[in-house]
């Protein structure tokens, strides 16, 4: 018997372990994922960058029936998934997995768009999102995802299209062979670099959306008989694992795990790159002990983090770029030391112009720590140690290994619902936002998704 390729092994696992992956805990996690992403997307639709993305999509083509959530704009399913995926990621509030992936921003927009087209049930939608997250995470874990990031790749973009293809494929009813082709096609289109960090460009925003779009197109092509490379991961010439990571292991793709990947997803409490959360939290704890300290009284601030965090967020920020602030540990530490909450409002253009924040941020040195490297690789913790030295010679230190929202300090159902209401209530109205939350959290598996998609067509 011919040995299965990596993609064939992954798809076979998905088909043969569906019952285990669709546990009650996984279903609840999928509901949380959907609600959280819808809130992030609605909030993102009212930003300046969001308006530009929506305008571009509308100019490129319209005539579809899939809503850009909460805007009244209708697009084709691939374009709507692209826009909604980008909107979810605009304020860095969307979920994250320790394999350095924003899974929901890719899988939820693609699944909701295809579910509306197919008239799917909530049970089908929940499975599609669960399957999409499973696939994207396993693709990432099959390689050295820390090395993948340090080489300059953005995992949400490179691995996301696989997840979107799986989510769309579930709803389109692809058989096992068609799903293999869908993932092969998606893999042949994958890409996305971290170059945006050099000048604070907005391309990071659109990476999840482009992955969502490409996943839908890949699944549709596969359904209509187009084949994809079955060795897209490990091919000697062009296999993405060989190109994108120093090492890889295909056994991870069909290894039996204790829980579905969607149960490992972390929901953000702070509007920044995950690598900023622990340094920010440590700084905020120091603030709570000492109160506000003027930059003139600070001699030095040292933030010790893992190497991957330095690669992603170790640099300073540009005062004309929200993106650069969201991926800046010095900015996050300055926010914490000054008592700000680290929420979306703290990553506004107005806040970036604050001279006091800049003065504190300039005092922050970000350094690699072997302890933090060990925690990242062995325990999957993105931890940090922050030490402040004042000019009078006194110091204070705080170490954080489990910031709020991490796997080790997860948001509760009430936290996620409250976050959704904060993000969506002011835009859609409290009544409509509560209606969305109720459907997402309490709908029966046999209920149609059309009810929620019709609500998402509304514009206040």
TrEMBL record:
<dbReference type="InterPro" id="IPR045337">
    <property type="entry name" value="MmgE_PrpD_C"/>
</dbReference>
<dbReference type="Pfam" id="PF19305">
    <property type="entry name" value="MmgE_PrpD_C"/>
</dbReference>
<dbReference type="Pfam" id="PF03972">
    <property type="entry name" value="MmgE_PrpD_N"/>
</dbReference>
<protein>
    <submittedName>
        <fullName>MmgE/PrpD family protein</fullName>
    </submittedName>
</protein>
<feature type="domain" description="MmgE/PrpD N-terminal">
    <location>
        <begin position="10"/>
        <end position="246"/>
    </location>
</feature>
<dbReference type="InterPro" id="IPR045336">
    <property type="entry name" value="MmgE_PrpD_N"/>
</dbReference>
<dbReference type="InterPro" id="IPR036148">
    <property type="entry name" value="MmgE/PrpD_sf"/>
</dbReference>
<comment type="similarity">
    <text>Belongs to the PrpD family.</text>
</comment>
<feature type="domain" description="MmgE/PrpD C-terminal">
    <location>
        <begin position="270"/>
        <end position="440"/>
    </location>
</feature>
<dbReference type="InterPro" id="IPR042188">
    <property type="entry name" value="MmgE/PrpD_sf_2"/>
</dbReference>
<dbReference type="InterPro" id="IPR042183">
    <property type="entry name" value="MmgE/PrpD_sf_1"/>
</dbReference>
<dbReference type="InterPro" id="IPR005656">
    <property type="entry name" value="MmgE_PrpD"/>
</dbReference>
